[in-house]
Design goal:
Arc Repressor Mutant, subunit A; mainly alpha; 7 helices; 3-stranded antiparallel β-sheet
Length: 200
């Protein structure tokens, strides 16, 4: 990932705290929409303020969110995300089965969330203005790479993503809207009928 991205490499404790349906949605909202109170987040996520406050405190104890001081806010507590992005690899948790299970849960959540967003886009695309209908895109590619090449490819793509995000923040234009971009590099098991690159 690009060096200037504010990210956290999740520790065993952090990934276990984050692997919870409400907590991951809370963190996602704070990252996407900016600082908010538990009352606001509860309303947006259709939950109750007590549960929201509890889970925000759990995220804060793990160093994933931070309480913000706001003059004149009274008893209301404002929260913000501590980082722009979370990252992890299975290899971080080889000796920790609980953290490994949490990583598996997060991966399943990500895959499910992608399916939800793709279906939401497909159902609503006809109502989008022409420029957005053509901008939204789903693509897939079958590449033949070794592990080192896959890592290099993903790092390069992520650097491009960060560059575009930074440019949009520095020069906001009319018509900006949130865009979910998912990246996945999923090695496939070789099959006898699959030709090697040399055979093609």
């Amino acid at each position: 990932m690009a060096d200037d991205l504010n990210q956290v490499h999740l520790t065993s404790r952090q990934i276990q705290v984050l692997a919870h349906p409400l907590r991951i949605r809370l963190l996602g909202r704070l990252r996407g929409d900016g600082p908010a109170t538990a009352t606001h987040l509860a309303a947006v996520l259709s939950t109750n303020t007590g549960a929201t406050s509890y889970h925000l405190r759990q995220l804060a104890d793990a160093g994933l969110v931070i309480e913000e001081e706001r003059p004149g806010s009274g008893r209301q507590r404002w929260w913000r995300a501590a980082h722009e992005m979370s990252s992890w690899r299975r290899s971080y948790y080889l000796d920790d089965p609980d953290a490994t299970a949490a990583a598996e849960w997060l991966e399943t959540f990500q895959a499910g969330r992608f399916v939800e967003l793709a279906e939401e886009w497909r159902r609503g695309v006809a109502a989008e203005p022409p420029e957005w209908r053509d901008a939204g895109e789903l693509s897939d590619y079958l590449l033949h790479l070794d592990a080192e090449q896959v890592r290099a490819l993903m790092e390069e793509i992520e650097e491009v993503v960060v560059r575009h995000d930074r440019a949009a923040q520095a020069d906001p234009r009319p018509g900006l809207r949130p865009v979910s971009l998912y990246l996945a590099a999923l090695p496939r098991s070789p099959k006898p009928e699959d030709p090697s690159p040399e055979e093609k």
